[in-house]
Task: inverse folding
């Protein structure tokens, strides 16, 4: 029967221990995750061994050099298992395994980023376990540990790690994994004990469920624009649009708007290209216009009527619009820098489908635009699936913090801000 390993990828030891206690009944191994070890040092391994003496404790050291020494210090801290990276020099892996045999600690070789040919070379050293690992960053781009199991050599016990949930752990167990590593599906759950129980049952019964890959829009429906901004390292925000029409952020029924950018570059008062671009739109289009000036309008009531006919989702104007009263009568959300009654002439200068800057954000045709009560963000189309997943990850972590605050704590206490403040020079 496959073992269940709980990956505690926290930076706070007390939070890690609380989750481990909740899930203790259903897990076999408890992992001191790499972030936890980097945050707290090997004292976290000592503490976990003391708190859970009947469980095997794995120190996810991800050793890349000085294999013998790092296995030794982890073993002396109480680790029953230690990880070394398969991408390390083969001598490092060999030294780690030999050190483990001296100190009674099993060595797990993490295969993150390792080619099939290198796996065969590692297998010849007879580690206790190979760990088929799809990292968090790989998971965000759609990587799956289940699709890579066939690359493993036969005869060596292996761990399966990376984004496994109650719907997929059964498939991993059925595929022959000796250890199933689960992190977020338990640690981010509102009830870690129930989550661990369901996962344990799915492993034991080989129960699995076909999980259809979600569309980007359905994933983004679970995240806010602040979540997306955090996921993009505080990038992508379109700012400063005082004119907001037909979108009331205070209305709880106001739906999030998600669509594909169609970009226009024009000049102050030249409304030819914005109007021509409407003819190229689809019902998934958000028209994004950059005008070099705000004194004359480049979009008005008749253009808005045309946009409605083409089922354009929204219009964003880094410039001026007019005919506010007319646009308000139409089902067309519109965001602009200013409004004025004066229009210019349709000279036809500018470009459609070129890269522009709108509200401080770089936008290209095809990029995803997300609009909600907080604001507007732009997601580069080539990273949209990754960013969507990262945004949901941010939202899930915030939910965990919110639960702790509601239980009687405060944000500064939950985040331990004093500990992580940058010290003054």
Result:
């Amino acid at each position: 029967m496959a073992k269940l390993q709980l990956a505690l990828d926290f930076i706070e030891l007390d939070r890690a221990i609380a989750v481990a206690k909740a899930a203790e009944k259903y897990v076999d191994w408890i992992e001191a995750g790499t972030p936890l070890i980097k945050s707290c040092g090997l004292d976290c391994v000592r503490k976990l061994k003391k708190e859970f003496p009947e469980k095997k404790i794995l120190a996810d050291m991800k050793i890349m050099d000085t294999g013998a020494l790092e296995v030794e210090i982890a073993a002396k801290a109480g680790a029953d298992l230690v990880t070394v990276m398969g991408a390390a020099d083969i001598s490092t892996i060999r030294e780690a395994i030999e050190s483990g045999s001296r100190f009674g600690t099993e060595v797990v070789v993490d295969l993150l980023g390792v080619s099939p040919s290198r796996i065969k070379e590692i297998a010849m050293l007879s580690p206790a376990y190979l760990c088929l690992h799809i990292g968090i960053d790989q998971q965000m781009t759609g990587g799956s540990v289940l699709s890579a199991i066939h690359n493993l050599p036969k005869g060596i016990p292996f761990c399966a790690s990376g984004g496994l949930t109650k719907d997929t752990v059964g498939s991993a167990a059925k595929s022959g994994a000796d250890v199933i590593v689960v992190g977020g599906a338990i640690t981010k759950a509102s009830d870690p004990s129930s989550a661990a129980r369901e996962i344990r049952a799915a492993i034991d019964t080989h129960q699995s469920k076909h999980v259809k890959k979600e569309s980007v829009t359905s994933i983004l429906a679970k995240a806010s624009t602040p979540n997306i901004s955090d996921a993009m390292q505080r990038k992508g925000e379109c700012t400063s649009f005082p004119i907001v029409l037909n979108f009331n952020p205070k209305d709880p029924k106001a739906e999030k708007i998600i669509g594909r950018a169609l970009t226009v570059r024009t000049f102050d008062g030249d409304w030819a290209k914005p109007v021509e671009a409407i003819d190229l739109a689809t019902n998934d289009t958000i028209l994004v216009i950059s005008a070099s000036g705000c004194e004359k309008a480049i979009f008005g009531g008749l253009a808005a009527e045309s946009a409605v006919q083409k089922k354009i989702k929204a219009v964003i104007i880094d410039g001026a619009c007019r005919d506010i009263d007319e646009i308000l009568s139409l089902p067309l959300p519109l965001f602009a820098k200013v409004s004025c009654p004066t229009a210019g002439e349709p000279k036809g200068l500018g470009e459609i489908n070129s890269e522009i800057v709108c509200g401080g954000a770089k936008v290209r045709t095809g990029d995803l635009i997300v609009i909600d009560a907080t604001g507007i963000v732009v997601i580069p189309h080539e990273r949209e699936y990754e960013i969507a997943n990262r945004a949901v990850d941010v939202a899930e972590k915030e939910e965990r913090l919110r639960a702790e605050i509601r239980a009687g704590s405060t944000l500064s206490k939950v985040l331990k801000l004093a500990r992580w403040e940058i010290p003054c020079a």
